[in-house]
Amino acid sequence: MHLSEMGSIADRCWQEIPEHFRYVKLDEYIVMPNHIHGIITISVRTRHAVSVQKDNSVRKFGPLQSGSLHTIIGSYKSAVTKLIHERGYAFRWQSRFHDRIIRNEKEMNRIREYIHWNAAKWEWDEENPAGTSHDASQPVSHPGLCPTCTHMARIETPRGSTFIMCNLSKTDKSFPKYPKIPVLQCRGYVRTQRF
Fold first, then answer.
1. Where are the domains of the chain?
2. pLDDT of the chain along its 195 residues, tens only?
3. What CATH number has the domain spanning 5-116?
4. H/E run at residue 165
5. Which residues, other chains included, contact 146 with Cβ-Cβ below 8 Å and sequence gap of 6+?
6. Distance CA 86, CA 66 (A)
7. pTM over 0.90
């Protein structure tokens, strides 16, 4: 994914979080055109998966506490907004974010995988103005081998996001569960008769 000037600011500020909060370590993250996903580890060994999006909402909780995830994300969003406004862009975050405490390595790896493959899914995101629109009952069409492969499964979430999953990953761990699109070469490719 190629970052815009605003995206580059968001990326740089995310990487600088540990400079402002010494008890924080960053893990997998990605800056998307309309949101950010990232894993933050706070020194008390609590991990949070964070999803920050643009929107207008009202905070429904009490005041921020020093050192909390809310303080870290609030500071991050404030710094990004200030730098973007200094460059003359109109920009506003939603007032809240989604977080989750990661309780074990299996969950950590699942969230890392989700974050890692998020950019590949942007083409089909309903908020992507240049994205591929498609009939949900039809296979997703895009460049690469996956749409014509016997082992491809199209997964649609309840929110309407579409993912390409490789069924070979169930029996052979050398195949990624969610391949990076487009796949141009694959030793497991078998052309389907669907097309």
1. 5-116, 120-195
2. 678 899 999 999 999 999 999 999 999 999 988 889 999 999 865 455 566 655 555 444 555 567 789 999 999 999 999 999 999 988 889 888 889 899 999 999 889 888 887 777 776 666 666 655 444 444 444 547 887 788 988 877 666 667 788 999 999 999 988 887 778 888 998 887 643
3. 3.30.70.1290
4. strand 162-166
5. 152, 164, 166, 179, 181, 182, 183
6. 27
7. no
